[in-house]
Each structure stands twice: as C-alpha cells, then as structure tokens.
Amino acid sequence: MRSRVTMVLAATAVLLGGVMLVPAAYARLSAGEANAGPESVAAPTPAPPPLPTLAAGKVSVNFKGEFFSWALLDRETDELSGSKNMAATSSTESMLKAWIVADYLRQLGDKEPPAAMKKAASRAIRDSDDDATNAIYRASGGSYAVPAGGQPGPVIKRAISTCDLTDTKRGNVKGYEGWWSFTRMSPRDAVRLGDCIADGTAAGPKWTKWLLSEMSKVRGSTAAKDQGPRSGGGRWGIIDGLPESITSQGPVSIKNGWTVLNYDGNWHVNCLAVTEKWSLAVMLRYPRGSGLDYGSDVCASVASQLVTPQPGGALKVPQQPIGKL
C-alpha cells in the first residue's frame, strides 16, 4: 500500500517537474531570440564584367601612304563604323580568296569535293596559294577573259548579290580586267563579306564551319622565309593587335591580301578578321620601300585601338615606324 502511494507521488512529481521545465525552457529560448539581433542576409553576387570585344571608337594612325581605310561591323547589333572613307575601294588581292573558296563550297551543297579540290581549298586559305585558288576559281565558273560591258565576272557578281555588297566592282587596271585579285572592294564591303562568311550565307550550312576553321589556321609570318612567289605566310595584322582576353574567347578567322604592284609601285595590303561578335577590315596602299611589316603593323594598331574595354597595360603590338598612334 505504501509502496504504491510512493510510486504515485513520484510519478506526479515527475509530471509536475516536466510541466515546470517546459515554460522555463521556452522562456530561455524567447530571451535568446530577443537578443539575437537582426537576421543576416548574404549580399548578392555581382554580375561579371562584360568580356572584352571590338567596338566603335576613335582610331589614330599617322599613316604615310596613298590609301588608308577601315571598317568594323558589330555582328550582334549590325552597327557599322569606320573611317570616313570606308566606302572607298582598293584591290582585294588574296583577301578575296575567302570568298572564292566559299562560293565553290556553297555550290557543292551537301556533296564532298574531290580530294584534290578540297586540298586546294585548304591551301588557298591556309597558305594563300595562288595556283590552288585559280583551280577553285575556274571550277566555280571564273575566267580571266575580259568581262563584257565593264561588268565583273560571275564569281564576283555572286559575291555582290549573295552578300549585299554595295561598292565592289571589277578591277580597272588596264590589262588585268579579268583578274580576281584586282577586284575593287571597300572596307565596309569587306566586313560585310566577313559577316556573310561567318553567318553561313557564303559557304552554306555544310561548309561554313570548315571554312571558318581553315581561316583560323592561316599560317606563316611576314618574314622573307615565309613569302614565296605563288604563296605566302598570312598570319599577321589584326590578329597581332588582339589581346589574349579576346583570342581566348574563341577562334579568330582571318584572310589577308598583299602584294607589291609594279604599275603603281605600292604595296596593296588588306586585313580581314571575323569572330562571332564582329568583323573588321583594314585596307592600305603605301610605297614599296616601307615593306610588308609596315602594313601588318597598321592593321594590328587599328585592331588594338578598338579593343573595349582597354586592357590595363599597353598591348604588345610589333613596333614599326608608322608614326604616333
């Protein structure tokens, strides 16, 4: 009897103790929350800065020669900018090889070219090989006969109509009227041509990626050892003026054109480069005594001045006496 009463009393005490403990614990928790202060919230992660690109801007080159012109096309906004004379024309030289190859490939559609022709197309781009280009040009219906009525031949006509070129025309040098290298083109048409190649219009859906890849693999420098009578190294110019922060974003596809012409004693130098974001062309004529490096450095200088935002340090552009930049 006593032990049962004792157990009941003990159980009652435990229950009462528990009832007393709950309000006490709640009171301590409430006091802790009151003293905790305002709740902390993590600051939002700032948006990363925009990647460097080429954008419209001022270009200053103390150029010594007969012709200097450039144009930049923003491929994301279609904004066209450049020098005041960006509609003026000069001979295309080997820069046009990018179109000649594109025109040939587009006409193939989904078909593969013969192995020898595909190799010729690659050499025309990577090594600026004249003989390989002539084979592609003839296969596309090109001819060195003087076109009738002062009109360009069929290959150049297709460039004008396919890529919406407004200034391009047949060369006007007596005795060279049917030569593709003497085709007259403006820098603003050159950047339109670059855009036409990059967006797939020029070479068609099957071959665009291949052509842009070949243009990104152009090789050889301005050095005499890389320059031959029928081909030559063409990896210079605009590509040299681009910082690593741009070249690391993806391939830069290029095709330069260059020669010394006896009829006027000038170097004719053209630089074309295109990426997913922009297309840039620089076209020059200057005395033969200045050399090929002079033209290469002018092209590099124009590109480096259009980099946006400008890198913290000076770009390592090869230095030649082109004047104040």
Q: How is this structure best described in words?
A:
A hairpin with a 4-residue loop joins β7 (257-261) and β8. The protein has nine helices and ten strands. Strands 2, 3, 6, 7, 8 and 9 form a six-stranded antiparallel sheet that branches. Strands 1-10 form a two-stranded antiparallel ribbon. It has 325 residues and is an alpha+beta fold. Helix content is 36%, strand content 14%.
Highlighted features:
10 strands; disordered C terminus; two-stranded antiparallel ribbon; disordered N terminus; 325 residues; alpha+beta
Task: Report a brief summary of the structure.
This protein is of the alpha+beta class and 325 residues long. The protein is built from 9 helices and 10 strands.
